[in-house]
Structure formats: C-alpha cells, structure tokens
Write a structure and sequence with these properties.
The protein is of the alpha+beta class. 22% of the residues lie in helices and 17% in strands. The strands form three sheets. A four-stranded antiparallel beta sheet has the order 2-1-3-4.
C-alpha cells in the first residue's frame, strides 16, 4: 500500500538552510495525497523559508532516499500537473518515465470520457463472407483507422487453425457516393483487361479502398491500406482517370 507522507526534509541548495516541512504546510495546495511517488510536485510549492528561492533538495522521511535533487531534476511532459518535477523514487520504478501519475490518470479519465466511435452498418451484400459463407463483422486495425469488414472466423495467413478464414474487405463506397461507385466500376472493368499474373494482386478489398479514398497523390496512395500487396507490384494513379500497375 502506498503511504501518504507526513513530512519531507528540504535542504536549500542556494543558502544551505534545512527544514522539516510537515504535511499541514502543503495539504491545502493539493487535492490528492502526497506519496513518495508524487512528492516531486512539492518542489514548486515549497520555496526555502529563509531565502525564498525554489532550490530545495527534498528527502524522504526515512532520511535515506532522495525525492528531488536539483542537479538531476526532471519535469513531467504532461500538462495536468503544469510540468511538475518527477520524484526520483517514482523514476526508479518507471511506470511511464516521462509522465507523472497525475497526468497518467488525467489521460485515462479523458479517454474514458470520450464516446466510443460508432461503427458503420455492414451493407446487406457483405453480411455473409463470400469465401466461406459465415457471418461477417466490423473491425478496426487501430482506433484511428477506418473500419473494415472481415469474416467472423478471420485469422491472418499462417494461422494453424484449419477452420479459419482469411477474407476481409474495405467498406464499399457510401450509397450516395456516385463518384466512388463510378471509380469502383471503372477499376473492376480495368482489372479484367490485365493478365492473370497481375490481376490476382488486385483483390476487391484493394479496389474498394481506392474507390473510397480516391487517392490522387503519391502520399495519399500510400495511405490506402493494402497497397504494395503481391509480387513487387504497386497500384498507382496518375491524373484523374489513369490507374496502372508499376514495378516497385
């Protein structure tokens, strides 16, 4: 159990004055208990009682462990604590060495307060896996990524589960996205003109990604998930209507 500190010993590095500072002297300045791990924030609140400079080395009540040393002071990168110094005792454990416990808690509370992103509804034609006919589900690779559709038994290639399925797909263009649907139709027509050696590197999920994102620059192109799939080929786009396979 983490114990609240009853006092700390402060030694001014400017004038050498040493004083024991009791909990009652800092209690009104903080909403939470001060422990060995959080006592670094005392530094900005406890100027020397003799010369009034903020230059105190702070020692734990056991008299053995340093909480703050002026020569090695390191401030938190978070903002909830106003970049308070980090306790040396906290830094020894390093749960998150650049951020104090107050800022970690603040980030956690902020994340919990954000409403969960609403996942889109799977279009009727995609509710069943076209490969194994199992139901499909919506998933995301990372929280900031676009959602995609995958088989409910999806497993990456290389998985030893023989009942696994490897099908997944980008979402099709929205119903009212006439440009996206036009691009998709053009892509599918263009794919049919390719030799089989190239066609197999252009699954529907890649064409769908293009129809949704409509990339027109090389950087936008690279952002389309699935780019670079296959045997050294890259799907590229030049101008508004020309899409070609190029060798990487």
């Amino acid at each position: 159990m983490t114990m609240e500190l009853d006092f700390v010993t402060c030694t001014c590095s400017a004038c050498g004055h040493e004083a024991r500072v009791m909990r009652s002297q800092w209690a009104e300045s903080f909403d939470t208990e001060i422990t060995a791990a959080t006592a670094g924030k005392l530094f900005d609140k406890l100027p020397c009682t003799k010369c009034r400079k903020k230059a105190a080395n702070i020692k734990h009540p056991d008299g053995k462990r340093d909480i703050i040393l002026i020569s090695t002071i390191k401030r938190c990168k978070g903002e909830a604590c106003n970049h308070a110094p980090l306790s040396l005792i906290y830094l020894e454990k390093k749960p998150e060495p650049d951020t104090c416990l107050d800022c970690i808690e603040a980030k956690t509370q902020e994340a919990m307060a954000k409403p969960a992103a609403k996942l889109p509804t799977i279009p009727p034609e995609y509710k069943q896996c076209p490969k194994c006919e199992r139901p499909t589900v919506v998933n995301v690779f990372n929280k900031d990524d676009e959602p995609y559709i995958e088989c409910s038994r999806y497993k990456p290639y290389g998985n030893v589960d023989k009942s696994a399925c490897h099908w997944y797909s980008s979402f099709p263009p929205d119903t009212d996205d006439t440009q996206g649907h036009a691009i998709l139709a053009r892509l599918k027509t263009w794919r049919k003109t390719l030799p089989n050696s190239q066609m197999r590197y252009l699954p529907d999920r890649l064409l769908l990604a293009f129809s949704r994102y409509k990339p027109i620059t090389e950087n936008q192109l690279k952002e389309v998930r699935g780019i670079g799939e296959g045997n050294g080929f890259l799907l590229s786009k030049y101008g508004k209507n020309i899409i070609v396979l190029i060798k990487k």
